[in-house]
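Example record for the data management plan.
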Amino acid sequence: MHGAIQLIELGAIILALGLLGAVAIRFSISAIPLYLLAGLAFGIGGILPLTTSEEFVSLGAEVGVILLLFTLGLEYTADELVGTLRTSAPVGLLDLVLNAAPGVITALVLGWGPVAAVALGGITYVTSSGITAKVVGDLGWLGNRETPAVLSVLVFEDLAMAAYLPILTTLLAGAGLAAGAMSLAIAGATITVILVIALRHGPLVGRFVSSPNEEVLLLKVLGLTLLVAGVAQQLQVSAAVGAFLVGIALSGPLAHNARRVLEPLRDLFAAVFFVFFGLQTDPRQLPPVLGIATLLAVIGVVTKVATGWIAARRAGVGPSGRLRAGAALISRGEFNIVIAGLAVSGGVGAKLGPLAAAYVLILAVAGPLLARGAEPLARLLRRRAAAASPQAAERVPAPSATRVVRDSPEIADEPS
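Corresponding structural encoding:
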């Protein structure tokens, strides 16, 4: 009987996720806020709390985080990461200061303590790579001149997370100074070893994993990712970071094939992860923190637009492209919930989980909507610029033959 009820609950959860995903596609929005709302409805204090499937959902959520970060790592090669770290460090550090500071200051003002401040700073800092990638693709911005600048910011944030998550994990464990230093040293050594393997022996890893059979490829990639993630977590490094670094080690056609075979599993377990976070959050705790979450969201919009504007300006992109770059960086999502989940499980701040849920709900919805509004505003800026200086378009250099640039409207941007 217990098994039957568990199957019924799991089937209902997965079916509900599919229906919510269809709604999100219909209205061209991210499904993340809908998944969070579903978790709130069926979790602690919700309409109809689940009774038997919590253990599966919990494990599925952990797998979801691992697969999210693994597929994100597939987007980059180790050389690209090192190159991006060198070239985008000034903008990346500015992004860190502008967007982490509001969270840190808020937690300290509310008296939540330094550990909660570190956690909330991470929550307000990092952009949702998944939502941003979808927004850029859906709006046809992939070939725009500002897109490399946006991607460089995202890569820097991913690298920052690789260093940040072990630090947060150590702080949450409440380790003393010596034990904490040892944990961080082990975490740093682990990350360094994996990066060296990715840089110098990536082809060897690729040959080990590669297979012409999709079933074998799926099993090898999934097994290796979970194995390394588990070892990384055992060594005081976040499992998500371990999975991210495994993704970096795979490149070329193998990365494309691995992404293709893992995408259905990633989408399923990632959805379960967002639902699980909602399940752990009592919706009755959201109203008291809604005002703070809204204020942080407004500040987050301003600081991310400023980050994108500056990054695109450094790349020689005109005002409308700078605006699009800033709008593309607004959304928060998967990493923010990962950080909040770690903090909540570590017992830091009873209100941190609800605040993070409200914050992500606001920006996961507002980000794509504001990005859509950036294009009409960019067109208005271009018309005004053209009226003020009709010769502006003639001064724009021809696009490089090696880069596909949209015919309209980006090439009408004035270089700074």
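Summary line stored alongside the record: The longest helix spans residues 352-388.
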